[in-house]
Design the sequence.
């Protein structure tokens, strides 16, 4: 059993990957943990998979899980979770906007919490005004409809105890709602500040408008799930012991 698995969904990030791997490996080596980095290539059309294979040749702690076709971030995240072997699991983006130096702080909370999700306090350092404004509106709407108090539900930089992920069922687009899904199952989730850096290469895979309508529909599904969640406690189970022959 490894101490830590870092799961990184990847889609057309060939320019970012070498810089991310170098920085991430330096941070993780400093933690003195047994770790693996699981790159999940989500049907990239560039050299992303080839670059990750190169990482693997130089360091067996790098792993490649390659999907047959582009299936979306939720699918890539789910595949990474299923492949992870660490006691703790961190998921982060491949675009260099998440800062690997935040990982020790995220892990430091897992002694008292089941999951930790990032809050990009200084969002303006990495995104334009339209994306920042749309995120603020989206967070308010999500919290109002889902009865949550998460300040940055769009941040996918997170850390988990491995047991949180057992039995977690994701649907397309539901990577945004993982904290809520975990809370529904009784796990303790903490939101903490993380750094947010400007994108250096490539472009965002999500636009403001093409994400808004789909995310709102997903939110209505999550609201329905919370309202219909079974809530009960067994008061007595007379005769429920196993019968042994």
Sequence:
């Amino acid at each position: 059993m490894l101490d830590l698995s870092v799961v990184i969904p990847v889609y057309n990030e060939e320019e970012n990957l070498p810089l991310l791997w170098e920085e991430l490996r330096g941070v993780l080596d400093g933690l003195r943990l047994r770790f693996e980095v699981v790159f999940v290539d989500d049907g990239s059309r560039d050299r992303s998979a080839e670059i990750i294979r190169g990482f693997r040749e130089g360091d067996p702690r790098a792993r490649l899980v390659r999907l047959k076709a582009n299936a979306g971030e939720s699918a890539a995240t789910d595949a990474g979770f299923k492949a992870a072997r660490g006691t703790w699991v961190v998921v982060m983006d491949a675009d260099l906007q998440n800062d690997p130096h935040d990982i020790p702080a995220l892990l430091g909370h897992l002694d008292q919490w089941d999951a930790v999700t990032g809050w990009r306090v200084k969002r303006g350092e990495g995104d334009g005004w339209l994306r920042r404004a749309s995120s603020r509106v989206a967070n308010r709407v999500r919290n109002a409809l889902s009865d949550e108090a998460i300040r940055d539900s769009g941040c996918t930089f997170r850390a988990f105890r491995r047991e949180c992920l057992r039995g977690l069922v994701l649907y397309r687009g539901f990577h945004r709602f993982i904290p809520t899904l975990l809370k529904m199952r009784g796990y303790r989730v903490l939101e903490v500040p993380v750094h947010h850096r400007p994108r250096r290469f490539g472009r965002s895979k999500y636009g403001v408008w093409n994400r808004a309508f789909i995310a709102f529909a997903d939110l209505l599904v999550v609201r329905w799930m919370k309202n219909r969640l079974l809530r009960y406690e067994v008061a007595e189970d007379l005769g429920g012991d196993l019968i042994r022959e």
Notes: The first helix runs from residue 17 to 31. Residues 22 and 55 are 10 Å apart (CA to CA). The longest strand covers residues 2-10. DSSP finds eight helices and seven strands in the chain.
